[in-house]
Amino acid sequence: MELDSIGRLLLVLGAGVMVFGGLLLLASRIPGINQLFNLPGDIRIETSGFSCFFPIVSMILISIVLTIVINVVIRLLNR
Fold this sequence. Notes:
The chain is built from 2 helices and 2 strands; from the N terminus they run H-E-E-H. By secondary structure, the protein is α+β, with helices and mostly antiparallel strands. The termini are far apart.
């Protein structure tokens, strides 16, 4: 790769990260979004000086919803 193509790639990736961060900031203002990651089945380990969180059930739920949405969009575009 040449330096100009690497520079463009880094600019595009940086812009993508900025857009994603902005979306997360906007999503944090939606009421009830914090409850999504407090579902039964999500694993939370907290000890003194250490905490770890595994949102297993939340990620399964998000995966199912996104799969349905993407399938509907693809079916609508293929008409």
